[in-house]
Amino acid sequence: MRQRPLKPNASGISWLANTWCAVLFGVVLLADIRRQLTDLDRQLIAWVPARVPMVVVLTKSDKLSRQQGTAALRAVRAELTRLRPQEIDQVMMFSALNRSGRDELSAQVERWLKPEQTVVAESA
Length: 124
Prior knowledge:
Layout: H1 15-20, E1 27-32, H2 39-47, E2 54-59, H3 66-83, E3 90-93, H4 102-113, H5 115-123
Parallel strand pairs: 1-2, 2-3
């Protein structure tokens, strides 16, 4: 028996969000560290259900000094906490040029996709 798609509800979340977010393991949001979060980023953050974890990846971190990068990281972390106060989301810096953040991001995605292996590894 085929289910009918859900209609948009009062909060504005579409039927698509209600149907496929049930199987969504996490969201990776890429944002330029020099521009921080845009209005479209904020819309996506608001759209993601509270039960879905999120990682905001601040790309091009090699373009800023360490001090500027740390300040941008703190600012985005504070804004994400304001937008999703009940959540424990991650914000990380990433640079394709010098490969910083690559292993951390890869490990997070693996934890989402293979949670049972993480639990076994932690208990060992």
